[in-house]
Amino acid sequence: MDFGLKGKNILITGAAKGIGRKIALAAAAEGANIGLHYRESEAAALEAATEIRDYGVKVTLVKGDIARLKDVKQVKETLNQELGSIDFIVNNAGWAQMKSFFKYEPEEWKREVDICFYGIVNLAHTFMPDMISKNQGKFINIVGDSARTGDRNLIISAAARSGAISFLKSLAIEVGRNNVQCNTVSLGLIDQGDLGFSDVALDKLIKQYPLKRLGKADDVKGMVLFLLSNSADWITGQVISINGGHSMLG
Ligand SMILES: NC(=O)c1ccc[n+]([C@@H]2O[C@H](COP(=O)([O-])OP(=O)(O)OC[C@H]3O[C@@H](n4cnc5c(N)ncnc54)[C@H](OP(=O)(O)O)[C@@H]3O)[C@@H](O)[C@H]2O)c1
C-alpha cells in the first residue's frame, strides 16, 4: 500500500524509544521527513535519527516538555527553520503512573494531567493553524484503552486522556472544513520487554486478551500510517483501538 507520505513533514513526539520510535522509522521508510521529538532520552533519539537518515529522508531532533507551551513553541520554531512547516503530527508522548488514586500526591496528579491532556492542547494550538492555512493536516493522539474503559490503577491518566479524546473530537468538528483530520489511537498493553510483571501475573493478563497475546510496537505502526495516509481522508473524530480484542466498544 502506498501511504502517500513521501516528502511530508511529520512530527512524532516521544519518538526516541518504544512505540514512537517504531512509528518514526515506519514513516521514514515511507519517505516522510521526521521531526523527532524527545524529552530526556537524548542518546536514544540520536540513535533513532541515524536509523531514520538511512532511509534517505530528513530528520530534525527537537527536545521539550509537551506540558509547557513555551517548549512546544520552541519546538515549532526549530522545525520551521530546519525541516519546514509540519504537515502531520503523531502525539505519542505520555506519562502514566500505575497506582491507586489514594497513593497519589497532588503534584503527581497535576503532572499527569499536564502531560496527557494539556500536552495535546499545546500541540494543537501551536501547530494546527499552519495545517488550517495549508488546507491539509492530520493530528493523531495515542492513548491507552483505559481512557475508554476506566482502570483503577491508571485513574488520572485515563481521565486526562478521556478528556483528550473529547478535545480531539470537538477539534475535528472545528477543523474539518479545513481538511484537517483528528483521530485517536487507543492501545491495549504493548509488551516491549520491560513490563516488570511476574510470569504468573503476565499469564493472567494474557488470558484477558481474546487474541491470547499482548501487543507489540509493530502492531501499532500500520494503523498510524493508514490514518496519516490519503486513504483516511474521510476519517475524523474517531477513536480506534489496537488492543487484541481486550475491550470491544461500540
Ligand atoms: N506501552 C503500552 O503498553 C501502552 C499502553 C497504552 C498506552 N500507551 C501509550 O502509548 C505511548 C507510547 O508508549 P511507550 O510505552 O512506547 O512509551 P512511554 O515510555 O510510555 O512514553 C513515550 C515517551 O513520552 C515521552 N514523554 C514523557 N513525558 C513527556 C513530556 N512531559 N514531554 C514530552 N515527552 C514526554 C518520553 O520521552 P523521553 O524518553 O525522551 O523523555 C517517553 O519516551 C505513550 O503515550 C503511552 O502512554 C502505551
Automatic annotation (TrEMBL):
<comment type="similarity">
    <text>Belongs to the short-chain dehydrogenases/reductases (SDR) family.</text>
</comment>
<dbReference type="Pfam" id="PF13561">
    <property type="entry name" value="adh_short_C2"/>
</dbReference>
<dbReference type="InterPro" id="IPR050259">
    <property type="entry name" value="SDR"/>
</dbReference>
<protein>
    <submittedName>
        <fullName>SDR family oxidoreductase</fullName>
    </submittedName>
</protein>
<dbReference type="InterPro" id="IPR002347">
    <property type="entry name" value="SDR_fam"/>
</dbReference>
<dbReference type="InterPro" id="IPR036291">
    <property type="entry name" value="NAD(P)-bd_dom_sf"/>
</dbReference>
